[in-house]
Amino acid sequence: ENKRVDAMPMKNTLEDTRAAIFSAIENYGGAKILVDKPRYIYAVFTTPLMKFNDDVEFYIDTSKSLVHFRSASRAGYSDRGLNRERYEALDERYRSWPLYEK
What we know:
The chain contains two helices and five strands. The chain is α+β, with helices and mostly antiparallel strands. The chain has a single domain (about 10-95), classed as Kinase associated domain 1, KA1 (TATA-Binding Protein, 2-Layer Sandwich). The termini are far apart.
């Protein structure tokens, strides 16, 4: 099974890109931001049912105008597609920004 996902395009500026990422995370819910650096964001998402913690990382590559995404389950091998579903949901919210901005 291919677990790779496409990088997301940056917004017009680094600031807008970061705002869109934070908006997507907040709108998705269940996350705690553990690292917030200018080009790197690390969050832990807790699954609603089983309360598993999943690591999610965003790396903003300003030289290529891309946002790289990584999501990994801490428990077990198979996540039953949850990480891909999370990526797709976050990607949709990110691309729809500022629609989800509060």
